[in-house]
Design brief:
By secondary structure, the protein is mainly alpha-helical. Helix 3 (39-58) crosses helix 4 (66-73). The longest helix has 24 residues, at 119-142. The chain is elongated. It has helices at 10-14, 30-33, 39-58, 66-73, 77-83, 87-108, 119-142, 148-152, 154-169, 175-183, 188-197, 202-216, and strands at 6-7, 20-21. The protein starts with 5 loop residues before the first strand and ends in a 7-residue tail after the last helix.
Length: 223
Amino acid sequence: MTNGDEVRTVRDIAGTGPLRRTAPEGGAPPAARRGPPRADAVRNRAQILAAAEQLFTERDPASVTMDQIAKAAGVGRATLYRRFPDPASVAAALLDEDERILHGRLAFGPPPLGPGAAPGPRLAAFYAAALEHLERHLPLALGIRPGPDRFCRGTYRNWRAHVRGLLLAAGAEDPDVSVDVLLSPLAPEVYQFQRHTLGLAPERIAEALGRLARGVLPDPEMS
């Protein structure tokens, strides 16, 4: 790799991490000399994301290939790979905007989802909002491969930080272990099994997770 080449990770391409660039010795980083993206680059990206969203919705997300995405988008393989290394990173990019909105609601929205409510009701509201997100975007969430990569993405880190903060605010024991236990019901594969294999209604799942939240973090005012 030569000086000035971009170093990209899946998180960078998906928009969930900073893009790290090496700068020529004694010079400014390449980003400082670059203008806005070309119109054709913006158009290609939009075509890729639109085509991929349809593919992830119409078929098993795990079966979608980069060749299929390129063909459906009407772009060359080289154009696709310049932007995304694999189908999982395309799915992550599609999820980013909705996840940013949810993160904003957690940080700045009205209670009980946002600040101002007790930790138990906030956790119950978070579960309900996260389930709505999964219901809308389950094919895309399933398109992100399970395993360590998923835990490194911005979404899981943001959700983990939020729930851990609620555990700390409630004085719960060992929040570093409990937080991942409380997030496990929101794994896309779990939600897919409950909704489409068992046929459970979203409202029933949300009610059960609400009871879990109130059991783990009881509201002091209700004691």
